[in-house]
Amino acid sequence: MSEPTKKGLVPVLRFPEFWEAEEWKIKPLDKLFTIGNGKDYKHLSTGDIPVYGSGGYMLSVNDYLYDGESVCIGRKGTINNPMFLTGKFWTVDTLFYTHSFKACSPKFIYLIFQNINWLNHNEAGGVPSLSKANISKIEVAVPEPDEQQKIADCLSSLDELVTAQTQKVEALKAHKKGLMQQLFPAEGETVPKLRFPEFRDAGEWVECYLVDVALDKLSNGVFNDPNKVGNGYKLVNVLDMYIETYIDETTLSLVDIGESEFLKNKVENGDVFFTRSSLVKAGIAQSNIYLGNANDITFDGHLIRLRPHTNKIFPLFLHFGLKSEAVRSQLIAKGKTATMTTIGQSDIADTKIRIPKKEEQKKIANCLYSIDDLITAKAQKINALKTHKKGLMQRLFPNTETEYTP
Length: 406
Fold this sequence. Notes:
Blueprint: E1 25-28, E2 34-37, E3 49-53, E4 56-61, E5 66-67, E6 70-74, E7 83-85, E8 88-91, E9 95-99, H1 106-115, H2 132-137, E10 139-142, H3 145-183, E11 206-209, E12 219-220, E13 229-236, E14 253-255, H4 259-264, E15 272-275, E16 277-278, E17 287-289, E18 297-299, E19 303-306, H5 315-321, H6 325-334, E20 336-337, E21 341-342, H7 345-349, E22 352-355, H8 358-396
């Protein structure tokens, strides 16, 4: 690929065989395909035909609405998540599907759909929605079918790499989950099912309360005043408990508080945090750990902090142990439900955990941490591939603004 010599409506980057090809043509979407409506599926029995909604796969039924390649877009709700489907499928009435393509590649249309800012075509003040009439009038730039296919094949190969890496990440997550079930004692057990060779004769794990492995009393964080955000100290908040990685100081929001309040609630390496409330009982006391060494981080008052006593417990071991089934079941049971499920400092402090000697703690923590490292590395590779694809798309499509309007 190189810079095309032909001027006019052409991309910056073009495959050599198309350097002297015709300019891309502006066409409304209804000249490229027909838009079909999804339908209610509740009258159908369970089968092996997948059903899709605007959020993705839902379930399987015994009949199909369409058989072939199709690009789908949400009609209502999630309207900015195009999907490429192939084979037999059924779509619900909140999803449009495309068919009867006219001199265009379905995979190329999928790329076009990814380039369109669908929220700019929202027709509702509340729940976002699209209409056939609106979609049909959107004008896009398209080359001849051979060039469409070449571009689609190139970018599809990147999608395949992303899919392969994503599958590896999911496999690693499943492996880690299974390993944790083996490396920590099940409820009612005193030793784990799987133990490193050097610790097989090390005896039972000791049961204690979380308060017994805490250096200080558990505490709540600072009041997060909405009028004092954007400046000041970095803030660990509730959302940081739900990410799949450790607390990332580079992504933290800022809160403006006084120095004395900050020093009282300053975050240190190894600090573990729990959510105090959840909309669902199973989500209570979600936890995460800070492993950095910054000197300007505090934490939100909707969190509870436990600072591990490092002479008694390895902080990273505690982090993983809190996610074991035996500990999670206790925390969930301690949640008190009214309009929301809540948990207090004393509830967390009185939660039991079994711990081995420090050497075994470190071995387990380092093992699981190494898997997290692999997951992070592959996730970064996925992000790099997506960034590469985005940059490539900007060069493989004419620069006619997001909507390709002339």
